Amino acid sequence: MTAARVRTRPELRRQRRQRAHGCWNHLLIAPLWPMHGVNLGTLLRTCDAVGACMAVPRRPWIPQALAQGNTLRRRQCVHWIDGPVERWLDRQRAGGSAIVGVELTDESIRLADLPTARKRTIIVLGHESSGIPPEGLELLDITVEIPMVGTGHSLNVAVAGSLVLYKLSGLC
Asked: Do the domain assignments include residue 67?
């Protein structure tokens, strides 16, 4: 058996896009009820990996959390939400976006059954402890669950959001 050869950084750079994507607005991850800043930084890194943007509510601590979590050290695509997040979600839906919530509901589909996004899609993530509030659930087109065999109730918000981003982007 031949040992695997690890690709060098210059090889990887040539294979990937040369600059940040700008704003495609095809996929947006929306942690609308954030609790931990470290999760935002992790999600921002995943956004870069799949060519997505992030939408976050304007809260005093969020810019610093994003700056600390941005390990790529270049500007990432962040959309700021002013006002109630439910109103923002309603406008996104009215504009033709699909609204996908990551939540355990009776109607949730399994992550493996989630098709690649074919139009502008907003991925809504809830609060780490309480999930997506009822007023947010009413605005979702579909909910997706990530099956687990362990004893935990759910995955970390950044991990769950990253898995759904990869699935919707068609990269896995």
From this structure: yes
* Residue 64, in any domain of the structure: yes
14 lies in some domain:
no
**For the segment 125-140, what is each residue's pLDDT rounded down to a tens digit?**
998 888 999 999 999 9
For residue 37, what is the domain's CATH number?
3.40.1280.10
Nearest-CA neighbor of 119 among 137, 103, 141? 141
What pLDDT digit, counting tens, does each position of 32-79 carry?
998 878 889 889 889 988 989 999 999 998 888 887 766 666 667 899
CA distance 55 to 77: 9
Q: How many domains does the chain have?
A: 1
Rounded CA-CA distance 85/88 in Å is 5
User: Is 116 among the domain residues?
Assistant: yes
**In terms of residue numbers, what domain contains 28?**
21-169
Tallying the residues shown for the chain, one arrives at: 172
| Whole-structure pTM value | 0.85
- Is 65 within 8 Å of 37 (Cβ atoms)? yes
Per the CB < 8 A criterion, the answer to whether 154 and 164 are in contact is no
